[in-house]
Amino acid sequence: MYQDISIEDALNKMAELPVVDLRSPGEFREATIPGALNIPLLDNVERAIVGTVYKHEGPEKARYMAMELLSPKLPAFVYSFKEVALEKKIVIFCWRGGERSHFAASILDLMGFKVFRITGGFKAYRKHVLQFFDREILPYRAVALHGLTGVGKTDVLLELKSWGFNVLDLEGLARHRGSVFGKIGQLPSPGQKMFESLIESEFRLVQINSYFLVECESKRIGKLIIPSAVFNTMGKGINILLYANVKSRTERIKRDYLTGKDGNLTALKAAIERLAKYIGNRKVTELTDLLGSGKISSVIEFLLLNYYDPLYKYPSGPSDDYFLSVNTENLGMAVKEIACFIEELSL
Fold it and tell me: What is the pLDDT of residue 347?
C-alpha cells in the first residue's frame, strides 16, 4: 500500500528519491516543485476533455472518460517510472492529492513500487512556499553586491557558490539580467509562482542566521517580482561595492551578452531601439549603424557611460559608503577578497 506523507517530509526525501509531478505538461510548465520530473497521467488536451465532461456530465462520467484515455497508455506510464526510479521508490503528487495521485499510486504499488504520495499535492507545496515568505524578513543575513553594469556581480556570485558559499542568484533564477538587455541570450523566464518556488528551494540548504550572498536588485526583475521578505532582507544586509574600469566592463558585457548564433546582434539592436525615448532616435540610429559596422565595443561603452551609469549612480571606484569595495578587473583576486571577508563575518 502506498504511503501519504507531508510536504515537509517529501522535501526532505528529494535528496534521495525522485519526485514526480503527475499533472499535465501545461500545469507543470506553470509551476512545480523544483527538481520534480513530469510524468503526466493526462496530457493538456486529455485534461481539458476530462474537465469538460466533469463540468457538464459530472464526476462519474469524467472518471470513465479518464479511464478510457489512460488505459492504452498505462504500460508506457509504468515504464516511465522504471526509468527514473531504479530502486522502485518514488514520491508523487498531483494538484491537491486527489484522484490522479491516488490512481497512479495504486497502479505503481500493484507493480511493486514503494510509493510516497504528497498529502495535499502541489496545493500543499504552494502553501508551504507562501508561508515561508509570509514574514517581514527572512531568518538569514544578506551580503549584497552592488556596482555598475559590467563589473561582474554575477560572475563573483557564481564563483563564490562554487567555493561553497550560500548564494542567491536571483537573475539566474529569473533567467533575466535585470535591464533592458536582460533577456538577450536567455531562455524564457519562469512564471511568478515558479520563481518563488525556486527562491524558496535555494534557502532550504541555508542554516538559520547564516550569511548568503546576493546581487542588489530592484523589486522587479523583468516581469517577476522579488518576494517582499527576500527584498527586505536584502535591504538590511551588508553592502559590498564592486568596481572596474570601463574597458574591463565592456569586455565582460561582450562576453556575457554577445554569444548567440549571430552573436545576439539582432536582439541587441532591438534592445537599443527600445531605448529611443531615453537617448533619442538619432543616437539609436548612430548606435545601430556602429553595430552594423562591427564596432560593438564603442556601442557598449557609450551605453555604459551614457545610459547605465547615470541610471544606477554607483561609484566607479572605492567608496566609504560600503563595508567593502573590491576591484573586479582581476576576478580571481576579487573573489578571494570577498571570501575572506565573509569568513571573518562568520567567526
Answer: 67
Residue 131: exposure state from Cβ atoms within 10 A (0-12, 13-18, ≥19) = exposed
Q: What is the pLDDT of residue 180?
A: 60
pLDDT of 151 higher than 70: yes
What is the architecture, at CATH level 2, of domain 3-130? 3-Layer(aba) Sandwich (3.40)
pLDDT digits (tens, 9 = 90+) for 233-262: 999 999 999 999 999 999 998 888 777 666
Q: Report the C-alpha gap between 219 and 231 in whole angstroms.
A: 7
Task: Give the Å distances, CA to CA, from 43 to 18, 22, 150, 251.
Answer: 21, 10, 43, 46
Q: Alpha-carbon distance 97 to 101, whole Å?
A: 6
Cβ 194 vs Cβ 33: under 8 Å: no
pTM of the model: 0.91
CA 158, 159, 160, 163 torsion-angle sign: positive
Q: Which residues contact 266 (CB under 8 A, 6 or more apart)?
A: none
Pair 69, 44: CB distance under 8 Å: no
The CATH number of 137-345 is 3.40.50.300
Whether the pLDDT of residue 177 is over 90: the answer is: no
DSSP-derived letter for residue 320 is T
Angstrom distance (rounded) from CA 209 to CA 228: 18
Considering only 27-41, 198-212, 266-280, which range has the smallest mean pLDDT?
266-280
Query: In this predicted model, what pLDDT tens digit does every residue of 275-318 receive, in sequence order?
Result: 888 899 999 999 999 988 889 899 999 999 999 999 999 999 99
Q: How far apart are CA 131 and CA 298, in angstroms?
A: 48
Ranges of each domain in the chain: 3-130, 137-345
Terminal Cα-to-Cα distance of the chain (whole angstroms): 49
Locate cell 516581469: which residue?
223
How far is 71 from 57, CA to CA, in rounded Å?
Answer: 21
Q: What is the pLDDT of residue 185?
A: 61
